[in-house]
Backbone:
């Protein structure tokens, strides 16, 4: 298998992002079912308390929370496979 150097890296980024979102959605749907509940198993990390910058006129809130689940990992793997097969 030869690796093509002219593949667009933005396409890979968008496919991975789509895999994360769809995997998270499928994991959320499967959490109510007993045999699919493992798809929503994962770890969440980020800022517990967001950072707030109050400038008087403008208030800016910085926060980040990331949840990695089994379904999102499967979605990323499927997205990478789709990218390299097309």
Residues:
């Amino acid at each position: 298998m030869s690796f093509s150097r002219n593949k667009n890296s933005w396409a890979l980024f968008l496919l991975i992002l789509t895999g994360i979102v769809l995997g998270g959605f499928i994991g959320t749907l499967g959490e109510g079912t007993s045999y699919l509940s493992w798809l929503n198993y994962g770890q969440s990390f980020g800022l517990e308390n967001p950072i707030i910058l109050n400038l008087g006129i403008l208030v800016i809130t910085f926060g980040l929370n990331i949840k990695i689940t089994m379904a999102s990992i499967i979605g990323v793997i499927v997205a990478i496979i789709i990218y390299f097969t097309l």
About this structure: The longest strand covers residues 42-46.
